[in-house]
Amino acid sequence: MLNKILVALDVESRAEALGLADALRGSVGGFKIGSRLFTAEGPSIVRALAERGDRVFLDLKFHDIPHTVARAGIEAARLGVRFFDLHASGSFEMMERTHAEVGRVCRREGIRRPKILAVTVLTSLRKSDLRRVGVADEVEDQVVRLARLARKAGMDGVVASPLEIARIRRECGRGFLIVTPGVRPARGDGGRDDDDQKRIMTPEEAMRAGADYLVLGRPIRDARDPRAAVQEVVAEMARGFLMARARPGMRV
Q: pTM of the full predicted structure?
């Protein structure tokens, strides 16, 4: 279960990020670097963690013309990240080209190819938000449509809320990675005013549905004892994992 936890280093500085990573190294599966920390510290923070042997998920959600995203993906691979993501809504061509060009450069330069994930629908969005941008379908239908497109384009998996995991798993298969933000431990504080994630589940529920990796930020980062918080999350995840295995037709 430890390897399935990716801690979001959504902090302001290199010192804070490395301090949290040092405190949790060996207790979690890796660390997510998003736009906040990357904008503040740049590629050097990615290299610093990669050089320490950490698995890094570079969560910059690339979304641009295919050539630009493919080149950005190549640079992410050269930084040594284990995962990076792009928006599935950027088009089939964007995803397919990124997969092809990153793979080609990694083979040529002897680099481990990162897992490429496609972001489906942000966990902060609901049906009303989709309608405002011209998507009339239910959130789950849009998520699954984009997941299928991503799989066809060669993506290794998707980033999706825990509410859509079960259907993605059924329609995209067991080898397709599902990385899940929007996870809140059962014994949490009930959420905060600045927590804009709307489609959420507990770690137990997410694992029972079939998630491969859970991304957690505040519940671990803001805990008095981050390692103890991780252990509580692991216990919840283990219950969900075992329940999934015990139920016919459920994945894990």
A: 0.91
Is 127 annotated as catalytic?
no
Phi, psi of 30 (to 5 degrees): 165, -170
User: Which one is catalytic: 4, 61, 115, 127?
Assistant: 61
User: Residue 193 above 50 pLDDT?
Assistant: no
pLDDT tens-digit readout, 29-65: 999 999 999 999 999 999 999 999 999 999 999 999 9
- Are 140 and 123 contacting, i.e. CB atoms less than 8 angstroms apart? no
Non-local (6+) Cβ contacts of 95 within 8 A are 86, 88, 116, 118, 149, 150, 153, 154, 155
Please give the structure tokens belonging to residue 39: 């904008």
CA angle, 195 as apex, 177 and 157 as ends, to 5°? 10
Report the half-sphere exposure of 231 (CA within 13 A, side-chain side). Answer: 4
Q: What is the 3-state secondary structure (H, E, C) of the chain?
A: CHHHEEEECCCCCHHHHHHHHHHHCCCCCEEEEEHHHHHHHCHHHHHHHHHCCCCEEEEEEECCCHHHHHHHHHHHHHHCCCEEEEEHHHCHHHHHHHHHHHHHHHHHHCCCCCEEEEECCCCCCCHHHHHHCCCCCCHHHHHHHHHHHHHHHCCCEEECCHHHHHHHHHHHCCCCEEEECCECCCCCCCCCCCCCCCCCECHHHHHHHCCCEEEECHHHHCCCCHHHHHHHHHHHHHHHHHHHHHCCCCCC
Tell me how far the alpha carbon of residue 64 is from its chain's centroid.
Answer: 19
